Amino acid sequence: MEELEKWHKDYNPELHMVRRPFSTPGYHTTLKDVAFTHPTLAAFIYALGLLDSEEDTYKERASDILRKGISLQDQNRENSTYGIWSWFLEEPLTMMAPPDWNWADFCGKRLVLAEQRHGNRLPADLREQIRFAVFCACDAIMKRNVGPGYTNIAIMGAFVTLIAGEVFGVEQYTEYGLERLRKFSDYTHELGTFQEFNSPTYTVVAIQELSSIHTSTKLPEAKRLSADMLDVAWRMVAEHYHVPTGQWSGPHSRSYSTVMTDSVKSFLQMACGEDTVSLQSEAPLIYSLDWYGNHIECPPAYKPAFVDGNGGEYTQVIHKDAQGNAINIATTYKDERISLGTFSKDVMWNQRRNLLAYTRNGDSFSYIHLRFLHDGYDYSSAVFTSRQDRTDVLLGIGFCTNGGDTHIGLDLIDGTLEAADLRLRFEIGGCLEGVETRIKEDTEAVHVKLDDAALAMRAAVLFASFDGEQPHWEITRDGERLYVDYIIYAGDKKRFDFRSMQEALLVLAFRLSGEEAAPFEASVVSLGPETGSLGSQVHATYQTIGGSLLELTLPLKPAAKQQMLHRK
């Protein structure tokens, strides 16, 4: 009821919608310079919350909102957008670029729950509208038929179709939803984890959706499968929570905030119980209306991980080729001061956290996030490759000719790029007290003292070649962030053609350890000759603190994305 009070003030009774400050991830919507919008999803969430309050005074408002929201769905079977909604009242589907088909899942879920929980309290004509809208959403979900690798939508689509089938007695939907849940379970067990691996955002969504299935279904098999997948999700969270810093260790397949948000902390607090953990001791709990009526609980076996900590190194294959060979391996190392995570092969999309570290800093923490930027925004056609051993990483940045610019799939390049600035960035944030930096010009290295010199980050360039440019280090500070940048190009806007480039590769050694740790022993062993389709290659080695030898062999020349991501 307290959370509903916050929503009431944003309700527009003329529009029967909720007003929200405009925000966008940078794709799908074409709206610009807009202060406020009326989101369709927020309207459905609010309407369900009003019904969940079981206050008769809110029933008419909830009904008005549901009618308005349903009217915004494309219910014309002839249209490609049949069954989905636009994001905003202010932007119809025809304006979006492209529309977001996930809205059949997101909005459809709230409508299914409105009928399942409160159908007997709603007018008959509205219940018919809900039924028809849900059927349109189910048809759209089944036609799109996303695979089990799209973790949160695979689960949410299973929920909408499965529960719709149970609620409305449509066997076709029930069978589809149950089969989709089976496929997701089989795929997850074969891989050993979720494809959307270790995402603070979408692991929470996955837990919510799996909990929704487990709470709402009456089918024993669906309950068993959802419980099994919930165990996979909670194990992943427990393995990556870092007690010394209170952060969710990397690497992250998808993330919208490098620092764990209060809403995620609140979720973990709620799921673990106040008697077990205290993650939000200094801030109020941020309650989500989606939690109501949904039994969400961390299994007892994993609760100690949020209190005592569990150091060590964890590895997980998250992508395999057609022959079953590992293509991308996630590695996470944790101890009493540091957590460091890397992917072995992935693109530098702004939702990826390919190299992410958290360190204690006094009573707080600092983070280190590696990025590659095109005019200040993460460049998705940069390809990250690494080998990690505890707190040492040997990494390379190559480039593909046909990947994305700002997004991996919605903003594809044609092999060329117009840029006024290209740079590799170690972004350091969180607490910056006691953080000191210096550039070692003679060795092409940087040194960053952390936690009043108790820890240090070192990064050394072993090889750098980019179309004849002369890269260099630069250190700047912007408010609460420190930027340690290796600048590839900065100047007038220039056209770079990756198809004709013969050399575009960076290789670095990275270490995060005690201030007095042993010096680097890393080098480029050889610059290999042309080797067929691979072209010239660079082979680099790095001696770790623990004595192991990390090695990378990387192509000098940009290539197609599929080829770059499948090279070992």
What labels would you give this structure?
globular, alpha+beta, 568 residues, 25 strands, 11 helices, 29% helix, seven-stranded antiparallel β-sheet, single chain, nine-stranded antiparallel β-sheet
Gross morphology: globular
> What structural category do the secondary elements indicate?
alpha+beta
Q: Helical segment tally? A: 11
Share in β-strands: 25-35%
Calculate the mean pLDDT score and round it: 93
- Kindly report how far apart the N and C termini lie: 54 Å
What oligomeric arrangement do these chains adopt?
Answer: single chain
Largest sheet: 9 strands, antiparallel
Radius of gyration: 25 Å
Kindly state the percentage of residues in helix. Answer: 25-40%
Number of strand elements: 25
Summarize the structure.
With 568 residues, the protein is of the alpha+beta class. It is built from 11 helices and 25 strands.
Overview of the molecule:
The strands form 6 sheets. Strands 7, 8, 9, 11, 12, 13, 16, 20 and 21 form a 9-stranded antiparallel beta sheet that branches. 29% of the residues lie in helices and 30% in strands. The protein has helices spanning 2-8, 40-52, 59-71, 103-118, 124-144, 151-168, 171-191, 200-216, 220-240, 262-272, 561-566, and strands at residues 11-12, 17-18, 20-21, 36-37, 241-242, 247-248, 312-320, 326-334, 338-343, 345-347, 355-361, 364-374, 377-378, 382-389, 392-399, 416-430, 436-440, 445-450, 455-466, 472-478, 481-497, 504-514, 522-527, 537-543, 549-555. The chain is α+β, with helices and mostly antiparallel strands and 568 residues long. The chain is globular and about 80 Å long. 45% of the residues are buried. The protein has 11 helices and 25 strands. Helix 2 (40-52) runs antiparallel to helix 3 (59-71), helix 4 runs antiparallel to helix 5 and helix 5 (124-144) crosses helix 6.
